[in-house]
Automatic annotation (TrEMBL):
Keywords on record: Isomerase
Entry GO CC: cytosol
Designated name of the protein: Ribosomal small subunit pseudouridine synthase A
Enzyme class: isomerase
Gene Ontology terms describing biological process: enzyme-directed rRNA pseudouridine synthesis
Domain Pseudouridine synthase RsuA/RluA-like: 46-177
Entry-linked NCBIfam families: pseudouridine synthase
Reaction(s) the record says it catalyses: uridine(516) in 16S rRNA = pseudouridine(516) in 16S rRNA
Amino acid sequence: MCRKLIQTGAFAIEGVVHDNPRETVDPLGLQFTLDGEPWEYREHVYVLLNKPEGFECSTSPTHHEGVHSLLPLPLAVRGVQPAGRLDQDTTGMLLLSDDGPFLHAMMSPRRHVPKRYVATTKHPVTEEMLQALREGVLLRDETERLAATDVMSPSSHEIDLTITQGKYHQVKRMVAAAGNRVETLVRIAIGGLPMGNLALGEWRYLSPEELLSLPYEAPASGK
């Protein structure tokens, strides 16, 4: 894909078109345009996306459009992958990158990366339900109870909670085991990084300072 874009004359440096994909250029500090849109060379990219409902976190989506369709072509074609998954009907914070060690750090069960969610529920939330989530609930096919942290109820039909395990449909299953049902679910933070005010469907690069709030040490040469 990148070769074809270069051959069609879409790639330019300082206004000069470079259409030879075999040409060698110095990537350090490189700024270029692609179809007239300015870009800066980055050894690896770390992207924050506010995922809307109805998108699959897969490079080969089966029933819904993939989240890669929300990214500009230069990001999509460089092979960025989601650092974990959100169900198609779950919205909110999704990290993507082409840095393999970063993806592993975010998804490894051994890292216990905290992920914070807000769930709206079908039935009113009771203190007994919150206490069950704090103490741990036993899910089907699991041998140990799973507990949430920082559990609270912002309103009568909302649960704000943090998990560190990352099991399949974990929040929905935990809330069900506590005696309620999740109607909508949004992820609002990962590690020490909050979603912020990014609109649904929008993306942005993570800053070096934001990377420091995650359990990952970026390469010194990364940009």
